[in-house]
Amino acid sequence: MELNGVKETDVLIVGAGPTGLALAVDLARRGVRTTVAEKADRLFPGSRGKGLQPRTLEVFDDLGVIGDVLASSGPAPVQMIWKDGERQGEHHMFDPVEPTPAAPYAGTPRILPQWRTQEILYERLTGLGGEVSFGSALTSLAQDASGVSAVLSTGTTVRAAYVVAADGGRSTVRAALSIAMTGESVDPSSMLVADVRIPALDRLNWHVFPVDAGVLVLCPLPGTEDFQLAARFPDGERPDLSSDGVRGLIAARTHLDAADVTEVLWASDFRPRAALADRFRDGRIFLAGDAAHVHSPAGGQGLNTSVQDAYNLGWKLGRVLRGGAPAALLDSYEEERRPNAAEMLGLSTRVHRGEQRRGAATQQLGIGYRGGPLSEGAAGALESGDRAPDGPLDGGRLFDAFRGPHFTLIAVGTDAELPPLDASLVHVHRLDACEAYGKGLFLVRPDGYIGWAGDDATGLAGYLTRC
User: Fold this and answer.
1) CA neighbours within 13 Å on the CB side: how many for 112?
2) Which domain holds residue 82?
3) The total number of structural domains that make up the chain
4) What region, left, alpha or beta, does residue 270 occupy, with left being phi > 0 and alpha being psi -120 to 50 degrees?
5) Residue 318 sits in the same domain as residue 251
6) In what order do the strands lie in the sheet with 51-52?
7) Does residue 355 sit within a domain?
8) Does 325 share its domain with 284?
9) How far apart, in whole angstroms, are the C-alpha atoms of residue 203 and residue 111?
């Protein structure tokens, strides 16, 4: 809605990457008016964050995009090691993790180029009636007790109740708020990432070329004819991002000729570091994704952690703006997400340095909020703050019951009486048994974590008044 030349909205999201788009989708399905401002004139064109972990697939299931994600992606291929133009054998990068009824998406990460992930989320957003304002950079913002006023490069002034910075590692919003990033260099060497087409190379493996100058890898990207190229450079050497430079790099470090690279679609460089914003909130403005934490790409944690920032914040903004929850609920965003981001940075750094293999920890299914501000009680096999497992339910599964903006109360193996509950807020299901839960009452938050648990309903009604 525009009034007196000012566009009024509930939430202004700065940045249309995976974080901003996931948040916009979540808010749109909650009926929250959202404006997404993206300084570029189109969605990001590269493959950068290509690995989707099982927990993120569960988030995408809830957001209604899992069908497109699974159809467009593929399991991470086994690596093939090369030397002097000869295959030396396969290398399994990931410790095996098998899917179970409680964790149906467990396994190796799915490979999906970032541009396609964003495309899927964008399609879902527009299907819900949302939109992105491309070519709209943030030029200034100021907040007061009732909201935030932001001016965009188009000349538009946006008045929002809240602003979320999802504008990446060089966040304009974070800089405007003077929020510092604390961290360290993970590797003094520069890295090059590019999307290339090489018809002469098979797409059955993730190809690894270790040479004295630095390792080069080529990963086939499902649903495309492309490979993602990643290469490490000696300390002090800067990558040549031109098409000829990328072709020359491949020719120098592999058995392929420069002419075998038929297209260079996108290229970028970076120096791996790990840094965490000193705070994730300043009044009515929140940081999410790379605006709040930057990291090594090793282990495939960054995009996944960023999407989960959005997923954590989305339901809380929705409850405050549309559900009558107290504004204090928003305090829990930083309290829950900043410790998880800090752990992710440590994990990514250990994987980058070869100190930890990719396995159960990198799948992110063990991430939770035990002891957090919205975690209360324990029952059966679970403690509040734990991820809510999947399981069978009335010919379907629990994830089907969780899908949507509501809370879900699971009563397992108990006929405990319940207090009066708002049926639009809390959906109730009773099960005779579910091994992953054990016996008890379990209140599942809209983001798929156990918020409250108990052997009876004592404290349940009081908990809901906080959310």
Assistant:
1) 26
2) 75-105+188-271
3) 3
4) beta
5) no
6) 51-52, 110-111, 74-75
7) yes
8) yes
9) 13
The secondary structure of 287-350 as a DSSP string is E-GGGTEE--STTS-HHHHHHHHHHHHHHHHHHHHHS---GGGGHHHHHHHHHHHHHHHHHHHH
Are 125 and 165 contained in the same domain?
yes
Are 158 and 263 within one domain? no
- Taking 70 as the threshold, does the pLDDT of residue 141 lie above it? yes
Total-model pTM: 0.96
Examine residue 371 and state whether it is found in any structural domain, yes or no. Answer: no
Looking up residue 458, the CATH number of its domain turns out to be 3.40.30.120
The answer on 387 and 407 residing in a single domain is yes
Instruction: Show contacts of 83-90: CB within 8 Å, 24+ apart.
Output: 83/210, 84/255, 85/255, 90/205
For residue 96, name the pLDDT band (cuts at 50, 70, 90). confident
Q: pLDDT digit string (tens) for 210-243?
A: 998 889 999 999 999 999 999 999 877 889 999 9
Smallest CA-to-CA distance from 13 within 107, 116, 141, 120 is with: 141
Bridging pattern class, strands 273-277 and 51-52? unpaired
pLDDT tens-digit profile of 166-216?
999 999 999 999 999 988 666 778 899 999 999 999 999 999 999 988 899
- As a whole number of angstroms, the distance between CA 91 and CA 94 comes to 9
Same domain, 399 and 440: yes
Residue 319's region, left for phi above 0, alpha for psi from -120 to 50, else beta, is: alpha
The CA distances from residue 277 to 285, 296, 342, in Å, are 13, 15, 10
- What does the buried/exposed string (b/e) look like for 398-420 if buried means 16 or more CB atoms within 10 Å of the residue's CB? bbebbbebbbbbbbbebebebee
The rounded distance, in Å, linking the Cα atoms of 423 and 267 is 51
Tokens, residue 464: 């809901």
Residue 372 lies in a domain: no
> What CATH number does residue 300 fall under?
3.50.50.60
